[in-house]
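Hi Y.,

Following your request, here is the sequence exactly as I used it, all 305 residues.
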Amino acid sequence: MFADMILEAEGFAEQAELFELAPAKINLALHVVGRRDDGYHLLESIVTFADRGDRLAFSAAETDRFTLSGRFSPLLGDAEAADGNNLVLKARDRLRQLLRNKGQAAPPVAIHLEKNLPVAAGIGGGSADAAAALRGLVRLWGAEVSENELGELGLSLGADVPMCIRGEALMAKGIGEELTALSSLPSLSLVLGNPLIGVSTPDIFRRLSNRENPPIVEQGDNWLAYLKTLRNDLEPPARSLVREIDEISNLIGAEGASLVRMSGSGATCFGIFSSKAQAETAAANLSSRRPDWYFQAVQTVGAKI
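Below is the corresponding structure, written out as tokens. Let me know if you'd prefer a different format.
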């Protein structure tokens, strides 16, 4: 049944009217600097986006439709049963309501999600998919919606959605809604690695030993040297929960990465390599050693150097 649905979905995707990449989001650094009275943690993070990720396809339809395919789609369950729990569908419904309140049309749409990224992996996931859904539907419906409106709608779906809508190198502060472009951050050659063990973000935050850590200091001229002075405050509690993070970090480092760090709440780790070719070689080597894990060479957005 599920295989039949995937074949049908891929056939639709080939004939779709437009496509949106939902790129992997990488937290190059993430500092937890406080906590609000409502329980939300205050963060400072240097964020960038990869040239690989999930892929969404959109087409006009007689009735709303949502289909799935891709390596990690089985982890999302049956598309027919997703209902309003999937962030892509929540994004569709909330954008539709916003447009109808403004007197704009938002007709039925068929959406196909090709799930290429691990789930609960600290690299965007559902937030990136929701952001891509919003961008794609704005295009498909010819919607007239301001950047601020789209950002506020995204924030209602999740703290990471506004930065995923923008999809550029950013400094994120607050709970993730205070965004400043980092135009000087260079494009980086990375290897992403994940042991395919999902990590609960609330569990990670509950294990934090300190929620009042030093903020990110002002950027230096050498980005790599600067990044090495920073950290991910969620990495120690994540390593205490998922011991495989130690192993995957060591494996990436042994391939010659100049910096290895965990992204977001994990368990995905990244290694920075000096060239795209070196990253691709490292990813191939790692995939051969651990074919049961996820490894991917990516190039991030950013200034050319």
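The first strand starts at residue 18 and ends at 35.

Thanks again,
Q.
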